[in-house]
TrEMBL record:
GO BP: division septum assembly
UniProt cross-references to PROSITE patterns, sorted A to Z: G_ENGB (PS51706)
Keywords noted in UniProt: Cell cycle, Cell division, GTP-binding, Magnesium, Metal-binding, Nucleotide-binding, Septation
Protein function: Necessary for normal cell division and for the maintenance of normal septation.
Cofactor(s) listed: Mg(2+)
Protein name per the record: Probable GTP-binding protein EngB
Keyword Magnesium: yes
Species name: Acetonema longum DSM 6540
SUPFAM superfamilies (UniProt xref): P-loop containing nucleoside triphosphate hydrolases
Amino acid sequence: MSELHPAQKPDVIRAEYLISAVRQEQYPPGDEPEIAFIGRSNVGKSSLINSVCRHRGLALTSATPGKTQTINFFRVFFKLSHNNSEARRQIFFVDLPGYGYAKTGRSTRRQWAKFIEEYFLQSSRLKRIYQLIDIRHPPMESDILFHQWLRRQGLPVKIVATKSDKITRSRMKEHMGVIARTLGIEPEQILIHSALSGAGRDELLDDIVQILLQ
């Protein structure tokens, strides 16, 4: 794997909304790698995307859980240093509907599950899935079941613990340990993030850029 030039950090220079889809034929054309964001409703997927891209209105956020009802594609342009020279790379960010929202009708949940599963199993561009979990609470049954399903499919999933500004730094290690033990992973495999403070943004960018350099 290629290494970043140590003198400069990668960053997003531009991001744009492309399309909302529920079927494969609606996905945008192109061969850019894809990174998908999934988690329980109201865990902060859209806020994380906006934070990473430094574009407050890019992915629409809402206080109402279950608001995202389609697969939303964004094209994100990165600037990074590679082998002592500056390079530009493009990538798709994919914002998926949240799971586990009890007030969503059963037929709607089945519809979401169908097109989300089809996306995960059919997208040839998918390089990383960030599963978001609220750091304040232990993973819920839907988090556990979804994580297990992703791993059984051999999909490249990584955990991002969101809303890290909502707990004290002294409790963060404890909460990350609970998430790790519940999901059967190591705490070091978990990224943290706060859309409010921006904490963890650089680490998340570094992880994304390693995908671009593969």
